[in-house]
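User: Reviewer 2 asked us to show a designed sequence for the structure in our supplementary figure. I'm pasting the structure tokens here. Could you produce the per-position amino acids so we can include them in the response letter?
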């Protein structure tokens, strides 16, 4: 009976020991993915910013500029692309809506970002665009890969429609979460005007006729939780200028926007809470379950060996029979 129990325990030990690496190296890459129907919104603010009044073409200081950014998973579009791509695909329809302190629209720029649900690598398909312009992204945008590494990544800049390195700058603690800090600098670059401008009748085409061009530079900063690849916080030191042309009169350039853009406090709190929750799920697949299965396998192996050793031990000697007392003869 002990031998049978030992064999069963040995089989279970082998099973759980083999399951541990399978969970980490086989199951996790297939189970960890961005859901196709994800919806996320974020509010960023630049206080005491400089903003161009397109009515007077004068730059002025405003108390606050607000940027509302939404990401909405387009399930129907992702399923259609998956039919030909042969892999899990996520389609994010994004909108960056900028408004001044009075709530008036400054610009709104839509995007469609298509990427692999598991690796976050871009997937090139019909509909990939920024503000109606077709683009071909290289590198990541919005989110880092699961199990982010301590290295530089290629990051797509939607304003300039280019990809540039975003550099790993070190590991930090952000509100109790260990994060990797990344920074990207886009030098002064000529960029398109938004398709929708705040002044009625003013279009990118009408501005182009004046010879005036739009230029942009930014320092982009992200604090990324490495297990999920999700940014818990972000900032931009953002500057835009209009240069040359008859629109500016005798001026060479004028500031269109300048400000230090930061996530609003309530969105920081909700983002950190969400990332902490998702981090636990990733740890379950990459650490808790694999190490738990391995420990259980070792424990079962030890128990099987113990039972086997007891089964091989020689039996105890039989007790001596007591002899009956003999009668005493005189």
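Assistant: Here is a per-position design you can include in the supplement:
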């Amino acid at each position: 009976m002990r031998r049978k129990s030992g064999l069963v325990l040995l089989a279970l030990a082998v099973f759980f020991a083999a399951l541990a690496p399978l969970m980490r190296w086989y199951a996790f890459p297939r189970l960890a993915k961005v859901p196709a129907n994800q919806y996320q919104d974020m509010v960023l603010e630049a206080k005491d910013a400089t903003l161009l009044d397109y009515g007077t073409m004068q730059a002025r200081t405003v108390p606050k500029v607000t940027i509302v950014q939404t990401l909405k998973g387009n399930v129907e579009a992702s399923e259609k692309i998956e039919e030909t791509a042969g892999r899990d695909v996520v389609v994010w329809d994004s909108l960056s809506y900028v408004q001044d302190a009075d709530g008036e629209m400054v610009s709104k720029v839509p995007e469609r970002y298509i990427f692999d649900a598991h690796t976050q690598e871009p997937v090139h398909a019909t509909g990939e665009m920024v503000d109606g312009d077709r683009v071909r992204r290289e590198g990541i945008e919005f989110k880092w890969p699961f199990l982010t590494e301590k290295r530089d990544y290629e990051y797509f800049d939607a304003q300039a429609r280019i990809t540039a390195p975003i550099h790993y700058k070190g590991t930090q603690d952000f509100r109790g979460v260990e994060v990797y800090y990344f920074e990207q600098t886009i030098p002064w670059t000529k960029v398109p005007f938004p398709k929708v401008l705040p002044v009625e009748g003013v279009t990118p085409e009408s501005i182009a006729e004046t010879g005036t061009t739009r230029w942009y530079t930014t320092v982009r900063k992200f604090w990324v939780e490495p297990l999920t690849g999700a940014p818990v916080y972000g900032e931009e030191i953002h500057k835009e200028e209009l240069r040359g042309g008859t629109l500016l009169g005798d001026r060479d350039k004028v500031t269109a926007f300048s400000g230090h853009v930061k996530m609003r406090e309530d969105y920081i709190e909700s983002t950190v809470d969400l990332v902490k929750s998702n981090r636990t799920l990733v740890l379950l697949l990459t650490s808790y379950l694999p190490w738990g299965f391995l420990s259980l396998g070792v424990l079962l192996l030890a128990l099987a060996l113990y039972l086997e050793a007891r089964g091989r031990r020689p039996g105890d000697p039989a007790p001596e029979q007591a002899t009956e007392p003999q009668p005493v003869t005189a």
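For the response letter, you might also mention the following. The chain has a mean pLDDT of 90. The longest strand covers residues 58-73.
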